[in-house]
Amino acid sequence: MADVKEILIQSQISRINPSKSVGPSKAPSKAEAEKFESALESADIKLSKHASRRIDSRKIELSEMDYAKLSDAMNSLEKKGARDSLVLMGEKAFIVNVPSKTVVTALSKEQMQEQVFTNIDSTILLNQ
Asked: Where are the domains of the chain?
């Protein structure tokens, strides 16, 4: 329970402004895509085809540090016996299958507005 309190205290959850319009931004370059794949391999995280498409279409940018945090979160969730989890990381959210260490889908701040997350057994909040 102390771990959850610490995570909640350390997390920076910002209010979502529903009046902002959602619009496309620039597509990631080939170099960014290759960096993304390299970071995934080093973090030992798999990405489903669906998640890959969502990350591309929603223009979600992830640093190597983000991948490391995601990997650490999956390890923590695995220790607690989690199976399908919601990982909240700043203005990004990921649904992950913990046993297979697979990111199932990804959402940006805009897609999280009034979103209902179903079929998850746990949630972890990470500092951005």
From this structure: 31-126
Q: Indicate the pairing of strand 122-126 with strand 92-97.
A: unpaired
Sheet with 122-126, edge to edge strand ranges: 46-47, 102-108, 92-97, 84-89, 122-126
DSSP string, 30-93: HHHHHHHHHHHHHHT-EE-HHHHHHHHHTT----HHHHHHHHHHHHHHHHTT-SEEEEEETTEE
In the chain, % of residues over pLDDT 70 = 66
Question: What is the distance between the alpha carbons of residues 62 and 76, in angstroms, rounded to a whole number?
Answer: 20
- Where is pLDDT greater, at 31 or 123? 123
pLDDT of 27-41, one tens digit each? 656 666 666 565 555
